[in-house]
Structures are given as C-alpha cells and as structure tokens.
Amino acid sequence: MSKLVCPLCGVYTSFVPVVLTGEGILVKESTAQRTLREEVALRAVTDEDYMRVEDTCYAVLTCQACDRWFVAAKPKYSHEWSAVYPIWHEAAAKEIPEPIKGEFEEAHLCFAVGAYRGCLLVCKTVLIALQREQGVVSLKELKDKGTISNLLYGQADQVRLWANMVGHEDIPQAISKEDCEQLLAYIEALLNAVYAEPKRLAELTQKREQLKKKA
C-alpha cells in the first residue's frame, strides 16, 4: 500500500481507499477488493479504475492514523500520489499569538500551492503584525532592544526586502520555490525566537527547579 503524508494529521502512514456504494455512501475498501487491485494499489471513487481529469487520477483515501478522509492525486502514468485536498501546511508553534500565527500559516498555504509571490507578501504582513504586537515600528528596534539577534535581524530584513521587491517592482522572472522556502524558514525562526523559545526555556527551567526540590 502506498504511503504519503496525511494533510489532516501530518502523519506519514498507510491509507485505505474508499469506494462509492450504490447509495452514494463512501465506505472503506475491503481486503479482498484491495487484493484484486494489487497492481494499481488504490481504488477509484467511481466505477472506473480511477476518476480521471485529463491526465490526472484522483482517489479518496482514509488515513490509518486519524481515520479521516482526504483527496489524493497522481499523474496518469505515475505511481506517486500526493494529497490535494485539504491542502497540507505546517502548523505554527502554539506559543505564537493570533493574528500572527494565522497569518504565518496562511503564508505556508500560499507556499503549498506554489503562490510564492503571495507567500512573501503575507510574510511581510506577519512582520508588520509582529512589530505591532511588540510595540515597535521597525525590525531594527527589535534588534536594538535585544529581542532578536543580529542574525535574525538580517534574515527578517531579507524577507522584508524581498516582499517589497515583489510587491512594488516588475520582476522579470518568477520567484523560485527554493528562495521562497528559505525566506519562509527565516520568518519561522524569527517567530520561534520571539515567542516559542522563551516560553519553552522558562518551562524547562521551572521543571529543573522542581526536580531539584524533590531530590
């Protein structure tokens, strides 16, 4: 059975195909049915081998880890499946406050669908929201206050400059996936440094003190 990352729980596991019954109800495919179709591995959601749209095949799968359904697709002559609905995206650290957390996750969604210009523009929105929440007017002020390091300041400023470029200038070439991914990683490192890591450090310090008291 093919494996891929579930877009609902993020687990890399096996999946059970589901089929459409005569009553229009989706049910899990039996072992016997899967054995009959061992060569193709996944059963379609229609009476045909696959539900095809041009040269792409689609199927509804059930995650073995969370038992929820999602839609997967693969090129007609390929064996590689990927989830297409809902769109998987990396969740932000729970310590990041709203609306910054939601905006950062929206940037990840833009990246997931290949909207790299949009991703960078949303990243700029994240920077503005971060500055507002921290009560500053610039990234430099965060650096001068000691909230972020020189390295994080340089990385975040690159995100700002790239976002300004795609938002205000005519770019002759598309933004590459690799460049956008690197800039998105810079934003994540910035948010973790400001919100997540201080809280995690405080929790570890508290646990250590508690263990010392019990010793």
Beta strand count = 7
Estimated structural class: alpha+beta
- Relative strand content: 15-25%
Which residues sit in consecutive blocks of at least 5 with pLDDT less than 50? 22-51
Helices and strands, in order, run as EEEHEEEEHHHHH
Multimerization status: single chain
Straight-line N-to-C gap: 50 Å
Helix content: 40-55%
**Domain unit count:** 2
* Fold-level CATH name of the largest domain: Four Helix Bundle (Hemerythrin (Met), subunit A)
The CATH architecture of the largest domain comes to Up-down Bundle
Radius of gyration: 23 Å
Characterize the main sheet. Answer: 7 strands, antiparallel
What does it look like?
By secondary structure, the chain is an alpha+beta fold. The protein has 2 domains: 83 residues, no CATH class; 115 residues, Four Helix Bundle (Hemerythrin (Met), subunit A) (Up-down Bundle). It is built from 6 helices and 7 strands; from the N terminus they run βββαββββααααα. Strands 1, 2, 3, 4, 5, 6 and 7 form a 7-stranded antiparallel beta sheet that branches. It starts with a strand and ends with a helix. About 14% of the residues have low confidence.
